[in-house]
Amino acid sequence: MDPIDGEPQFGEKPLLNTNSRPYITPLDAKAATSAPNSTQTIFQGSGVQHSGQGPLIVGGNVNITSNAQPDSKEAVEKCIKALFLTDPSEDRDMLKRKKGKRAGGTCEWILNTKELNDWLRLEETEQKSRPNGILWLHGNPGTGKSTMAIYLAEELSTAFDAMENMTLAYFFCDASFEKRNTATSIIRGLLYQLVQRHRNLLSNYILPKYKERGDQLFTSFDYLWTIFIAAAADQETGNTTPNLSILITSRPYPEINEYLQDFMNADLASFDEARQDINRCITERVDDLAKKKHYTDKVKREITDLLRDKTEGTFLWVGLACEELRRKPSKDAIPFLRGIPKGLTSIYKSLLETAIESETGERMAIQRILSFVAISFRALSVLELSEACQLHQDEPDLDTRLQYIRDQIASCRLLVVVYDENVQLLHQSVRDFLTGSGSGFFIERIEAHADAASCCIDNLIKRFHSGNTSSTHFLYYAMVYWPEHAFQYWWNMLWGYVKSIQP
């Protein structure tokens, strides 16, 4: 997941081993007789029937039958609808479209690494060398973690579909989307995939609890986690040992490293193949530019060499540099590349300075846009952002207003992009840059949240006095998130005070 992407797989030991002397503990027998929707349990076979307490030992096959009525189709559909929050497969495809086409031949090497094969258990490994089923792949911003996660999700989905003893589920986190940025969202997404593949899991583990607690069941992480572990351990999802394996991709945040450093992990940049991926990406991007800009072979070679020298293993840097090259005539391409600095922070600063210098009179609008997008709790539509930043509100024609705000978003020079009519920062690292003191355009979180809370409240007051609540643009965001912005302002003020009085 980027911030945290993961592709778990699931499996378990069979509950009943029908060898010559299968054995069920008292706990197992109790669980069998108290299964959801079960009104009668009969052990049939060439062994004995059991009606008392204690272990059950049988000498032949074991069959468990029930005369319970199946859950109604309406109840099942209602439960699935309540469970659904977001479809991870659709999120994967959306992220894939947003990222663009993967450079040919990149990412494929990961399937042959010892780390992934140990995690998949395709190679024989001693238990002492693999004390757990967690693999953490980490990397710095812009180094291809999301693209790698997309590739793994696609490849492993295809592979696991052909396996009867494993089930794959995955989830892509995104801090900009409220349906994809919480632990509860992750569990709901994983459970949704499990029940789509194994519908009996819904009846056995989720539906009984849903009948008791209703929609509140899906807002409790503790309840969902208990259900998830039980479902992952079910024989339907697989029969490997251990029964749950988790793959996580993320930045090497200190708080994540604290918990995952003792598990199997690898820095993506440490693989030689990752550096080769960068070269493949540069070659493909320059070839594309050369066709559009009609570069000579000499210019093409120099551009390729400069990109390889300055990229520092960052795909995002290559993408930004190439997008800027599209704006430049051929004669300016090489001087431009020689002038831009290495590193994401440096190129962000260069882009921002260029935007402010070239867009006379637009500095205030650019600052408003960047500030609100950087601290918003979900992605805003173009019209929502227009209202939030009070841009072109006196323009009565909606299409004209939309065009004006789109032009100002374009003035932000790739730091902010519009995707599916939602305004988003290009990358999480842009938020880090804008809210860091080294940007030269420093967005103070305390002031930004205070301004956002004030903007939301002003919008609500105006709507209340005017009696007009028909707009569906910024009004809903203001109603839901003004307390969140106010809390962030209060919390950051309090935390700043606490730090100031500490010795």
Automatic annotation (TrEMBL):
Signal peptide: none annotated. Keywords: Repeat. It comes from the Eukaryota. Residues 360-437 form the GPI inositol-deacylase winged helix domain. Transmembrane segments: none annotated. Gene3D superfamilies: P-loop containing nucleotide triphosphate hydrolases. InterPro entries: GPIID_WHD, NPHP3-like_N, P-loop_NTPase. This is NACHT domain-containing protein. It comes from Trichoderma breve. The lineage of its organism: Eukaryota, Fungi, Dikarya, Ascomycota, Pezizomycotina. Residues 105-236 form the Nephrocystin 3-like N-terminal domain. Residues 1-22 are annotated as: Disordered.
